[in-house]
Amino acid sequence: MSLPRRIARALGAAALLTTSGAVATACVGGGASSLGHRACLDVASSIRRYAAASHSPGAAAARDRAAALTLIQRAVPLAALAASSDGTWQALGATLSESSRVPESDLLPALRAECAQTLGTGG
Known about the structure:
Elements: H1 3-28, H2 32-53, H3 58-85, H4 90-97, H5 104-119
Helix pairs in contact: 1-3, 2-3, 2-5, 3-4, 4-5
């Protein structure tokens, strides 16, 4: 099997495991509030990493931005599952779904506002 095909299979398997884990969590570990809160915890961590990138030199800044994006992407399925059960999470799910197309800097104000209440940051 060629290397690109093996990589594609590995990425597909990783995506399946990630989705399966999120679905299992939704079924076992709580409702929309729990999932939405977990998504917001990832968002808050992402915002901190993104802010750190602006104070970091070169390669460290790139690492911080990459880590911030990874945290945002980790929040996407959690927010989607929360939104499917409770409409109050739809705005967060919609904003996070744009993370693959829109720079994080453009999403930050909305993400802060959407997670302010659950994280107790007041807006």
